[in-house]
Design a protein that fits this description.
Layout (H helix, E strand, L loop, with lengths): L36 H5 L8 H20 L3 H23 L33 H18 L2 H14 L1
């Protein structure tokens, strides 16, 4: 499977019409870059509290299913990444007040990429139960998405065709 290519100018690309340029990558890579899917899904992504997380996860999962129905694997994979990111961001806010895990700003050349990038990790704080519940909600939908039979079929076909 190809690595996600951060050198592409994703703001200029339409991966609905050029799916061959998409690379699944690892985890959430590219979730805030790949258009037009980012712009379609991002407005629905919320994890502030369990009601917001429930509405968000349900909507994004419905989008996931719609992308699969239309044979748009890239859109389905992006929806899966947003569900995953709902879980990981909720967990971060559950463990770190304000969601700040590392000391200092992200280096300019690493923006959009996850990781410490040489920064020290801050001390974990007592768990926020509201954000932990939001994480649980997203995790359940993410777990459904990543094992959905049609998703797995389209993923295998995508990898076979594009690498």
């Amino acid at each position: 499977m190809r690595k996600f290519d951060y050198t592409r100018n994703y703001q200029e690309l339409d991966l609905r019409s050029q799916p061959e340029l998409y690379a699944i990558g690892r985890g959430e890579q590219g979730v805030l870059l790949v258009e037009p899917y980012k712009s379609e899904i991002l407005p629905h992504w919320r994890f502030r509290d369990p009601p917001a997380a429930t509405a968000s996860a349900d909507t994004i999962y419905e989008m996931f299913l719609n992308y699969l129905d239309r044979g748009e694997f890239v859109g389905a994979d992006m929806a899966r990444k947003f569900l995953q990111m709902g879980y990981t961001r909720s967990r971060r806010y559950a463990n770190y007040r304000g969601g700040k895990k590392y000391d200092g700003p992200v280096p300019d050349d690493k923006k959009g990429q996850s990781g410490a990038h040489g920064r020290d990790q801050l001390e974990r704080q007592p768990e926020d139960p509201v954000k932990a519940e939001s994480a649980r909600i997203f995790k359940a939908k993410w777990d459904q998405a990543k094992v959905h039979p049609e998703y797995l079929r389209q993923k295998a076909a995508f990898i076979e065709r594009y690498g």
